[in-house]
Amino acid sequence: MNRLYDALIVGAGLAGSTLAYRLTLAGRNVLLVSDPSIPSASRTAAGLINPVTGQRLVLQEGAEALLASAKHFYRGIEARFGVSILHECEMLRILCSEKEKQAWENRTGDPAYNAYIDHELYDHPDINTGYGGFFQHHTWYLDTNTILDTLHQWFREQEILIEAPLSYGDITIESDNIQWQTVQADKIIFCEGWRGEKNPWFDWLPFQPAKGEILTLSSDAPIPTYMINRGKWLLPTSEGVFKLGATYERGELNETATEDAKQELLDVLEHIFPGRPVTRVTNHMAGVRPGTRDKQPFIGIHPEHARLGIFNGFGSKGSLMIPWHAEAFTCHLIDGAPLPAQADIRRWHG
Ligand SMILES: Cc1cc2nc3c(=O)[nH]c(=O)nc-3n(C[C@H](O)[C@H](O)[C@H](O)COP(=O)(O)OP(=O)(O)OC[C@H]3O[C@@H](n4cnc5c(N)ncnc54)[C@H](O)[C@@H]3O)c2cc1C
């Protein structure tokens, strides 16, 4: 592996793996280095893709293009590798207050939301629909573990994945390349998830990581085939099995599952299905979202070190945001195309 690479990519979560795959498709020689013993948020995430979010029911800016790019990218992987990773699943959104109901009523009068939200309220005898429930469309989930397993296997076959840690002290920046161990590359691109906030070259970027926990449960009683969202969400993944998540915690950042978070999630379940028969918790995971202060990604080349780049900061929306931004960064790296201004790291450099 001592040849000259176009890019050494650090971190093979959804961001680094997608970028490495896109660059490879564009004919670039990339090498990925990622340490499987460092937890990856992508492996904890439920992979929800939901273009209308929050209590104010805000439609994600550029939702149509982001969705089109995500579907195209994930469907391409399914076709090439014969796997199933992207699943369409409607979402019942439960309104939790008069204010949220008002927001929904306002959105029903806005044509931009027509494709995404129902104008009728829905009721179900077993579900506590609070101030009302309505269906959201164009909601999906990505099986993040299957896509990562598939891409990592392919990277191994191409001999472009090193499964080891990288220490910043082992990197040398030369005028015509960067060096790490025996590897020489034109550029190094950091895709380290929330641990990127400790990266000495990019510590001026305002990361705002947030811990989250998710349960997997099994139930003997039938569960709806759609997602249910009342701030926290319930996602059916197979018969009698569903995920329940996610907590949001800015204080303590680690990947340790806690009893408090488990109880918080089980309380939500009880609220949605009052008097529901007992369900069994079969798995409990924690991870840290690579959030940013302005909720936009961090993409670009270091303003003073042309050989250092970053592709990070996808917060709670990696599954939706990463494919479109990987395409934009690939065009920037290869053709010098301008980066989307809202994601360009230069917005934070005085
Ligand atoms: C509980 C929870 C729920 C979530 N739910 C959703 C959801 O429903 N939908 C959605 O779209 N997003 C969700 N997210 C967010 C999603 O996980 C992220 O947006 C996305 O996965 C981030 O991917 P990433 O590649 O940037 O980071 P990561 O997946 O964290 O990848 C970073 C990689 O870098 C490697 N690494 C770091 N430092 C080093 C080093 N020094 N040497 C070698 N390797 C290193 C790590 O091993 C890791 O593999 C959720 C996150 C959490 C925690």
Structure description:
The chain has 350 residues and is of the alpha+beta class. It has two domains: 4-46 and 145-206 and 293-348, FAD/NAD(P)-binding domain; 87-140 and 208-289, D-Amino Acid Oxidase, subunit A, domain 2 (D-Amino Acid Oxidase, Chain A, domain 2, 2-Layer Sandwich). It contains seven helices and 20 strands. The strands form four sheets. Strands 1, 2, 10, 11, 12, 13, 19 and 20 form an eight-stranded mixed beta sheet that branches. Helix 1 links the parallel strand 1 (4-10) and strand 2. Helix 1 crosses helix 5, helix 1 (14-25) packs parallel to helix 7 and helix 3 packs across helix 7. It starts with a strand and ends in a 15-residue tail after the last helix. 43% of the residues are buried. The structure holds flavin-adenine dinucleotide (FAD). Flavin-adenine dinucleotide binds at residues 10-16, 33-35, 38, 40-42, 44-48, 165-166, 191-193, 195, 212, 214, 245-246, 287-290, 312, 314-320.
Beta-strand residue percentage: 25-35%
**Per CATH, what is the topology of the largest domain?**
FAD/NAD(P)-binding domain
CATH architecture classification name of the largest domain: 3-Layer(bba) Sandwich
Instruction: Kindly report the name of the CATH homologous superfamily of the largest domain.
Output: FAD/NAD(P)-binding domain
Write the SSE topology.
Layout: E1 4-10, H1 14-25, E2 30-33, H2 41-44, E3 48-49, E4 52-53, E5 58-59, H3 63-81, E6 86-88, E7 91-94, H4 98-108, E8 133-136, E9 140-142, H5 144-157, E10 161-162, E11 171-173, E12 178-180, E13 183-190, E14 210-219, E15 227-230, E16 232-238, E17 241-245, H6 259-272, E18 279-289, E19 298-301, E20 308-312, H7 318-335
Parallel strand pairs: 1-2, 1-13, 2-10, 7-15, 13-20
Antiparallel strand pairs: 3-9, 4-5, 6-9, 7-8, 11-12, 12-13, 14-17, 14-18, 15-16, 16-17, 19-20
Bound molecules: flavin-adenine dinucleotide (FAD).
Flavin-adenine dinucleotide binds at residues 10-16, 33-35, 38, 40-42, 44-48, 165-166, 191-193, 195, 212, 214, 245-246, 287-290, 312, 314-320.
